[in-house]
C-alpha cells in the first residue's frame, strides 16, 4: 500500500471512532447483550447494575453490557496475528487484560484455531496437546475463510485502530461472527458468537430434555466437573464437554466449536436479532476456539475426534450386556443375581461389584466375611464367559498404620495437597501432612490421588497389580467418583458421616480462587447446597503436581482432565 492510500484508510478507520478515542468521554450505550451479574439475571436492579462500569441499566431490558466493552486493533503483527488493546476503562470484575494477542492458525481445509492470549503475561492453558497438523500452505484451498479487521502495520500510541471482531465464512455464508463485546480479565472471560444455523447441539454435561438446543428458552448452563447425577434442573453434571455443533442449512453443512478451557464455565444459547447465538463465559485460562467445518455433522464430528484423540477401542465384551448395582451384600448375592439373570434368558457379559466387596470400602482390600471368596467368584464367572469388573474410588482412607496401600502412597507423595501450607486447616487429621482431607465412602477421612503425577500412575498401577492377583484377576476396573467427588464440602457434615463422631466436613477457605467474582451459574443452581464452586467436589486452592500459574485461578482445572 502506498503512503497516501495508507493514510486514507487510516483516516477511514479513525473517523467513526473519534469520540471513544478522545479519552472515553462518549456516553455508553446499551447493547443487546445481558450483563453477567454474579447473582444471575433475576438479581438485576439499577443499583446492582450500577456497580459495574461495563453495564448500563435500561428500563425495558434491564442490565445490559455497554458498547464500550471490547478491544481495538493496535497493529497487525503478521497476516494472521493481531495485537489488541482494551477499548476503554469499563470493567465487569476488574483486573482486565489490557493487551491481547489474537492468533489465527489455519491448520487444514476444515480446521482453524483462534486463540486469544494475554500479550504481557502467561496464563494457564489446558495441558492437552491437540492433534492438529502444522499450518496449511497458503495456496491450499480451505472450506472456510477467516475475516479479521484489516489493520494498519503500526499506529501511534495515542490512536487506536478499529474495534475488534471477526467473522468466518463457510462457503458463501458467514457461519460465525464473534461480536466486539469481548471481556477478558484475570478471572472472567466472555465472548458471544452469532451462528448461521439454528440447529445447535452439544455442550455439557447437562440435563438436556432434548438434543437440539431451544434458542427461545435462552437458558444459561454451567459446566464444572463434580459428582452430580442428572436431576431436573440446569445443574453442572459429572463431565466437561465444551463442544458445540451448529448445522448451518438444510444441506447439512455444519460447524463445530471446541471451547478449549477447563475452568468453571457456563454457556448461554439464545436468539440475538433473530440469529442463533451462544455466549461462553469462563473463570480463567485463555480464550481458545478450535473451529471445524464440514459438509455434514458427521464430517465435523470426525474432525473433532481426530483433533482431541480417538477413544481406545474397547474390548468386544465391553460392548455387551452389563449388570451393576450398589449394595450387593455378599458373594452369594452376586451369584444368585447372575443365576437368576441367566435363568430368565437375559444375556450377561459383564457383572460389576461395587465398593461393597471391600473391607470398610477401602480400595485394594476384600471384606473377609461376605466377600472372602471373591477370587473364586471371578473365576466361576469367567467359566460362564462373564467378565467381572470391580469398582474403585480415587480416594484412600486415612487409617495410617493399618492400611498398607495408604502408607505406600504417602511414601511416594501421590496425593492432592493444599496450595500452600497456610491453607492446611487447624483440625488437620493426624498424619495427613499437607494433603487435602475429604470424605467419601469409608468411615475415615480420605486423601485424593493426584493422577497428574507420574509417581501416582506408578503407585496406582502397582496397587492394582497386587490387588488384582489376590482378587482372581478381574477383567474390568471402574474408577468411580473421579470428577473428583467429595461428599459434604462446605456443609456441616457429609450425609453419610458417622453419627458417633463430631460433625466435620472439608471446608474450603474463602479467597478469590475458591470464590471467584463471577462464580458461574453453577453456584446459583438449586442443587448447590453450599452455594460455592467447590460444592460436591474439592477446593480450588489445591495443588496437583502440574503446578499451574496461581493467579490464573485455574488450579481447579486439573479436575476436568
Ligand atoms: C447451503 O448453503 C450453501 C452455501 O454455503 C448453498 O450452496 C446450498 O445451496 C445451501 N443448501 C440449502 C439446502 O439451502
Ligand atoms: C441487531 O440489530 C440492530 C438493529 O438492526 C443492530 O443495530 C445491531 O447491530 C444488531 N446486533 C448484532 C449483534 O448484529
Ligand atoms: C496461600 O494461598 C492463599 C490462596 O491463594 C493466599 O491467599 C495466601 O496468601 C497464601 N499464603 C502464603 C503464605 O503464601
Ligand atoms: C478409621 O476407621 C476405622 C473404622 O473403620 C476406625 O477404627 C479408625 O479409628 C479410623 N481411623 C481414623 C484415623 O479415623
Ligand atoms: C438447594 C440450595 O441450598 N441451593 C443454594 C445454592 O446456592 C445459593 C447461593 O448461591 C443459595 O441461595 C441456594 O439456596
Automatic annotation (TrEMBL):
The keyword Magnesium does not apply. This is Sucrase-isomaltase, intestinal. One of its GO terms (biological process) is carbohydrate metabolic process. Residues 1-28 form the signal peptide. PANTHER family: ALPHA-GLUCOSIDASE, P-TYPE DOMAIN-CONTAINING PROTEIN. Belongs to the glycosyl hydrolase 31 family. The keyword Nucleotide-binding does not apply. One of its GO terms (molecular function) is alpha-1,4-glucosidase activity. Residues 311-491 form the Glycoside hydrolase family 31 TIM barrel domain. It holds the Pfam family Glyco_hydro_31_2nd. Gene3D superfamilies: Glycosidases, glycosyl hydrolase (family 31). PROSITE patterns: GLYCOSYL_HYDROL_F31_1 (PS00129). Keywords: Glycoprotein, Glycosidase, Hydrolase, Signal.
